[in-house]
Design goal:
4 helices
């Protein structure tokens, strides 16, 4: 689905078989085109993730500080998909 298509970004997508890469080489080529494009901009990390990263760089950070930071954003602590579920 294109970014300008109605419904893009609302959590659901319909993929036609013709949109799928035929093989691993096609997928790799498509990914290289996207990531090497001068117009590609990766998505920003959530503020809580950036704050947690900054906190982890400090040598005097306590476990309680990390816990408080993680409590600010449930997305950082919720279980995600594992390799076996993907």
């Amino acid at each position: 689905m294109r970014k300008d298509a109605p419904g893009y970004g609302f959590g659901t997508v319909v993929v036609d078989e013709q949109d799928l890469p035929l093989d691993q080489a096609d997928l790799a080529a498509q990914m290289r085109r996207v990531f090497l494009s001068p117009t590609y901009r990766p998505p920003s990390l959530p503020k809580a993730a950036m704050d947690l990263h900054a906190l982890s760089r400090k040598s005097d950070t306590s476990v309680n500080e990390v816990v408080r930071m993680l409590e600010q954003d449930v997305i950082l602590t919720r279980p995600g998909p594992t390799a076996s579920k993907i």
